[in-house]
Amino acid sequence: MNDITISGFGHVFQSLKDVKLPSTKQLTIFTVGNGNDHPRTAFYINRLVSNANKAEKVYLKIDKNTSVLKGDLTCTAITSLDIESAISIETLLSLVEVLSNLVDLSCLVEDDVQHIDLSEADKNYLEPYKLIQSANCIQFVRDLRISIYYLTSPAAGLTQVAAVLSKLPCDNQVQSLCFLLTHGVSDFSNQIFEDEQLAQAAKDIAMVFPRITRLKFDGSFTTDATKKISSYITKQYAHQLERLESEYAIGNENKFPALKYASINVFGENHFEIPQMSADHLEYLELFNLPLNCSWDSFKSSDGDIEFSRLAKLFISYTSFPDESQQYVFSDYRLIFPKLDTFSINGVITKHSVLSQMVFPPQMDKLFINCHGNMFQNLKNTRLPSTKLLVLSTSLEHDDNPRTVSYMNQLVSNAAGTESVHLWINKSTCTVSVGDITCNAITKLRIEVPIDIETVLSLIDTLSNLEIMDITCLTGDHTH
C-alpha cells in the first residue's frame, strides 16, 4: 500500500496495539484528545507502529491531551514526530538518542514558567540553544532559527546568544540561519549602540557556523538596532551567501557576488539603499518599499546597460516616498532581462518607474501589475511582452479618474500575443463603463464596483473568451 492514516481518541489505540498493519510507504497517526486519555496512549501507539512491517515513513502527531513519558516511543521507524503536550528535557534527549531515523521533531519542552519575570527573559530565551548543546545533536541540524530578544541593549542580546552558540562544534553542517529580531519595553531610538560588541558577536557566530549560504532576518519593525544587528551578521557571510531574505534594510556597504535569491526591504529609518548584488548571478529578486525615484546603480559592474542574465522572477513594490538623495532614476542605461518568466510590480507607479527602462524577453509566463487606478494612465503606452497570463488590478486607494478602465484596456491591447488576461476592478475604482472593457483576451473578470445586470450581460456578449466573471455588487437598475 502507499498510505495508511489512522486518527482517533488516544485511549482507542489501546485496542489497536496488537493489530498487524500491512507494508506501506507512509504511515500517518494522529491522536485526537478528549481530555480523558489513557496515560499509556503513546506506548500503545508505539506498539502499533512497530507492527507496521517495513513502513518507509512514519509520521506521528500526538495532541496536547496525550501524555508522553520517557520510554514510551522507541520504534526506530518513526521519521517525523510532532508532540503538542509538554515533555521533560530528559524525555526529549531520550527521543533524540533512541529514534535513529528521526528527521523532523517538533515538541514543547517543560519549563517552570511560574517564576519567570521580565528581568529573567534574556536568560530563558537562551534555553533552546543550551538544549542543542547538551543534547549533542547539532549534527542533525541544517536550518537554525535564532531569536535575538533584548531588554537592555541589542549588543547584549546578540552577545548572549553568541556565547551559548560558541560552545557548539564548528564542524557542524548548518547551512541556513534565520534571525528573529525583537525587543522588550525599552526605547532604543536614542541609544548609542556598542558597535565593537555587535561586530565581535557576529564574528563569533560566523566561527561556529562557517558553512552558511542562506540567511534570513525576520520581524515586524525596523529600528537602528535591527539594522545594525542584521548588517553585522550579513557582513560575515556576504561573500558566500546564495540566499538572503530580510525584513530590514541592510545597507549597501557589503557586496554579494554569489547571491541567487534575494528578498529585501530597501527602506531604512531615514534612507533607501539597495545592496550591491551581481546582476549575473541573481535568479530571484524581490525588492519592497522602493522609492519612486529608485536608482539601480547598485547592480552596475560597468558602464552601459545592466543585464540580469539569469533572473527568472522579479517582484517590485513601490512606496509613495521619493529618495531625496536621488535626482535621476535612469540616466544612460536600460535593464535587460533575457530569462525573465515572472514579473510583478505593485504600488505607486509613475512614468519613471522601472517599467520605463525594462527590456523584456519576447515571451513570459506571468506578469502582474497592481497600482492605484489612476496610475494606469502612466502605463497606457507601455509595450508589454507576450505572456501566458497577464493580471491587472487596481489597489484599494480611492480613484476618481473616469478613464481608469479604458487605460487598463489599452495596456492589455499593448500586450500582443497574451494568452490569458485577468482584470480586477477594485471597489474604490470609478464606475465601470461597458465600452471600456473590450479586450477579447480577458478570461477572468472581477468587478467590485456597482454594476447592473444589463451591463453584465453586455460584457458576457462582448468578451468572447471570458471563462470566469466575479461580480460583488450587482444592482437592479441600469444606472450607467
Short description:
Among the domains are: 1-110; 113-248, 2-enoyl-CoA Hydratase, Chain A, domain 1 (Alpha-Beta Complex), CATH 3.90.226. 19% of the residues lie in helices and 27% in strands.
Main β-sheet, in a few words? 13 strands, parallel
CATH topology of the domain at 113-248: 2-enoyl-CoA Hydratase, Chain A, domain 1
In percent, how helical is the residue content? Answer: 10-25%
How would you describe the oligomerization state of the chains in this entry? single chain
Radius of gyration: 28 Å
Mean pLDDT: 79
Number of strands: 25
How far apart lie the N and C ends?
A: 61 Å
Q: Quickly name the level 1 CATH class of the domain at 113-248.
A: Alpha Beta
Shape: globular
- Report the uncertain regions: 111-124, 185-190
Q: Assign the CATH architecture of the domain at 113-248.
A: Alpha-Beta Complex
Q: Which sequence of strands runs across the widest sheet?
A: 6-7-8-9-11-13-15-17-19-20-21-22-24
Number of helices: 9
Q: Could you tell me the strand content as a percent range? A: 25-35%
